[in-house]
Amino acid sequence: MKHSFTSVGVVLLCAVVFSLTAVPTTAFASNPKTIAVLYFENNSVVDKDKLDPLRKGLADMMITEMTKIKGIKVVERQRIQTIIEELNLSETDIVDKSSTQKMGKLLGAQVMLFGGFSNLFNDKLRIDIRIVRTETGETMKAEEVTGELDEFLTMLQSLVKKIASDLDVKLSADDMDRLEATKDGNFDGYVIYAQALNYEDEGKKLEKQGKKNEAKTAFENAKTMFQKAWDESDGYEPAKQKVEEMTLLITKLK
Q1: Which structural domain, as residue segments, surrounds residue 101?
Q2: pLDDT by residue (tens digit) across 63-111?
Q3: What CATH number is associated with residue 205?
């Protein structure tokens, strides 16, 4: 016996097909994409040594800006630092494909962000980033921004907007308000903030080794530098938060 679809049957079939195709999209949208921001490469032609702390600092500040977007889940920098130390990775290893894929999987990141910065002549800074799929090592997208040193945070915010678009994350009005709430400050203050991160990491490493006195000294140095970063940057809020964190760590070691 031959069967034919009625108009009702066609409608039902379309409804089923639509529901099957719509489910993955809805499920994906409800789960923030997880991204790990690795340390940047310093390709500067001016003040290269002075700006080297930004390799770590720029990653930290990018993470801070990206956490303002609800549709993106960002791996904490301290987790990345711990993995780098546990795997004993060098600067070369961090950009090696096999090492980064291993790192990405350990961090539970679907995608990883690689970047580099160049301090150019006439106080110009260029920041380049690549978004790489952890599983395959495939570069999904590359972006760059160039601007004045005193537009540093604006440049980071511009990059975050591009990254969100590349990951198909639509920014809400609240996302935009949070992202643009922080205004540009003195660039030197951000460099000092980056230097302070090295003291913080050294302190945590020494604390794990049971060297409490040395750890306390490192945290005190970090606190001093974060306070200076707060003052020099015209009020970069994460620097103030770090001063409070270092105070607690120092108190714990007394």
Answers
A1: 30-184
A2: 999 999 999 999 999 999 988 888 887 665 666 666 777 788 888 999 9
A3: 1.20.58.80
